[in-house]
# Entry
Amino acid sequence: MRALLAHGLPVASSCHGEGVCSKCRVRILAGAENLSPESTLEHDLKLRQNVSREFRISCQTCVLNDIVIDTTYW
Ligand code: FES
# Structure
């Protein structure tokens, strides 16, 4: 989420990156191996909110190398 905002890209959020709303989810199109592992908080949030496996919660994910992503609102 911080990387997206730093590059001027909009990120949906109603919890300001606290890992509660799941609105910041992004679809990973390539480079999933270049992301930090899913934390328990992210895993549980995705289960509660029915977030598909191909999505990551951007405020709970660190980018370690190149990735390709998309959202429904870009
Ligand atoms: S901004 Fe709410 S879960 Fe990421």
